[in-house]
TrEMBL record:
Residues 17-73 form the Peptidoglycan binding-like domain. Coiled coil: none annotated. This is Peptidoglycan-binding domain 1 protein. InterPro entries: Peptidoglycan-bd-like, PGBD-like_sf, PGBDSf.
Amino acid sequence: MQSRQAFGSRTLRRGMRGKDVAELQTKLQALGYYMGPIDGIFGRLTEMAVRRLQRDNNIRVDGIVGPQTYAILEQLIP
């Protein structure tokens, strides 16, 4: 079941849902990138926040949370 996915165990992109998406939103919010609700839904606001994080950290800006984006998040919020 998607909502039981551990953070970092799957690639996240717009349209996905789950606890790992909520954790992503929480981390992005703590870093000042995300101001929307922590609802576990990877929507437009979450994608925009991911893109800003990627741009600021000089990695590929695609709005998709894969290995590089997870690595940045782990560096910034251990």
